[in-house]
Write a structure and sequence with these properties.
The protein is built from 20 helices and 21 strands. With about 450 residues, it is of the alpha+beta class.
Length: about 450
């Protein structure tokens, strides 16, 4: 397998049947058609920039040779729908979804395939897992280690009618040195130097490109598919390392559910900045998918006018839940509780509990305990999920209640809440009003967030 660095392709002479006709100014992908395959080259000629379709490239051999006259190449009239590797990738920050971090691109490795090659599409291969990632990394690094030799082979044995694909991005010193010394140091000396620099590259399939311009993001159909599959906490760590406009770009492109889960994990200061950067409709869609208690905490930190703008755009049910929580002081049990929990009548059976869990749309943490209430909503008992596993479907839930029944009043302080969790090793804590009516539940992750905020 032959590889070619983008920095070596840029500036390369292009020869049409009549001789030298220009130099490569850009290398383009059409991401809506294929995320990894190079579709065309933009060539600077005496008559202006022209687009040379890669299908018309007959040979790569030190330079680019084509069988079609330069006069027949279309004139470049804008680059809408194209992803340009130098403009949109070199020196840009991208997200390494395998390493769960933000990196900067120093160069791009292109795989050179002969026509009809059935090589795996590195950009659209959806395989994942650590073993696969290590295998891909090893292949990329091996290719880099043989780079100088491969380039020389390429010049001796030219590839005719080639297919070019983005193989990986170089995020190490090797790519930076190659670009810095290209055209300055002799080629043989440069190749000898590059071999001695350890490679550091990331397979293209593990890269999500950050596009900050909403219009271009739509035109290029750039979606953070890989990023959206990460754990919300990992997404939060990544976006906290980005510039404000890049954070906004990521949250604009993520689906609302993923964005909401990630936003809950973000540092409150950054969380506030992200929501303020989004338009009211998008912010409302994301906040509406958050846990009510987290949504209320976030909106309470925003300016009143901004909070009202978001609330107006939210769905009525989600809006009501958040508004009710906003009425409570944040540093109390009521201010920390969520209104998403499972509560069944005291007459319920295990089968009723299983059915209710199937329909429950709240967070996973909230189903660790199922609460029993009377006809007035008064808290009567709590049943840990573990007790349902071995029970018969007809078993009354009342017979499985946990003793003692630990609860907190709405006005209880954060310290009181933390002490109850510590003393009784709780996963959830029910919150009741002055009439013992169940109004919400505090989960262990809420307590962890509360304690972290105090550090």
């Amino acid at each position: 397998m032959l590889t070619l660095a983008l920095s070596e392709l840029l500036g390369a002479t292009v020869y049409d049947p009549s001789g030298a006709s220009g130099r490569v100014r850009e290398v383009a992908l059409a991401p809506q058609e294929d995320r990894s395959r190079i579709s065309s080259l933009i060539v600077k000629t005496k008559s202006g920039n022209r687009i040379l379709q890669l299908a018309n490239v007959s040979e790569i051999n030190g330079g680019i040779r084509t069988s079609t006259p330069a006069a027949e190449w279309p004139t470049e009239n804008g680059t809408e729908g194209l992803f340009l590797l130098e403009r949109d990738l070199l020196d840009q920050q991208v997200i390494d979804i395998n390493g769960r971090k933000v990196v900067r691109v120093n160069d791009v490795d292109l795989q050179v395939d002969p026509p009809g090659d059935k090589a795996i599409d590195k950009g659209n291969d959806k395989g994942n897992g650590k073993a696969d990632a290590k295998a891909q990394d090893a292949k990329a690094q091996d290719a880099k280690a043989q780079e100088a030799k491969a380039q020389e082979v390429d010049r001796v044995h030219p590839v005719t009618n080639p297919i070019l694909r983005v193989q990986s991005v170089d995020v190490g010193a090797r790519g930076a040195v190659r670009r810095l010394l290209r055209g300055v140091a002799p080629k043989t000396a440069l190749h000898a130097l590059l071999i001695r620099i350890p490679p550091r590259s990331i397979p293209w399939k593990f890269i999500d490109v950050i596009e900050t311009d909403p219009a271009r993001r739509v035109k290029l159909k750039i979606a953070y598919e890989g990023l959206s599959k990460l754990h919300p906490a990992d997404i939060a760590d990544i976006v906290e390392d980005l510039a404000p406009d890049e954070r906004q770009a990521v949250f604009q492109s993520l689906d609302e559910e993923t964005a909401a889960e990630a936003l809950e994990e973000v540092n409150p200061r950054v969380q506030k900045a992200i929501v303020e950067s989004l338009d009211s409709e998008k912010a409302a869609d994301i906040v509406g998918e958050m846990n009510p208690d987290a949504a209320a905490d976030l909106l309470a930190d925003l300016p009143e006018e901004r909070t009202e703008q978001i609330l107006v755009q939210m769905e009525p049910e989600a809006q009501q839940e958040v508004v009710e929580l906003l009425e409570h002081h944040e540093q109390t049990a009521a201010g920390r509780m969520t209104t998403e929990f499972l509560a069944l009548p005291v007459t319920a059976t295990v089968q009723n509990a299983v059915d209710s869990m199937r329909e429950f749309e709240g967070g996973v943490e909230a189903v660790s305990t199922i609460y029993l209430v009377d006809s007035h909503g008064t808290l009567a008992g709590a049943v840990p999920l573990a007790r349902l596993v071995l029970a018969d479907s007809t078993t009354p839930m009342l017979s499985l209640m946990q003793e003692p029944l630990v609860l907190a009043r709405q006005g209880a302080s954060e310290n009181d809440v933390a002490e109850l969790f510590d003393k009784y090793n709780l996963q959830t804590l029910p919150v009741v009003d002055a009439h013992n009516k169940l109004t919400g539940v505090i989960t262990s992750d809420d307590v962890i967030s509360m304690l972290r905020a105090k550090l």
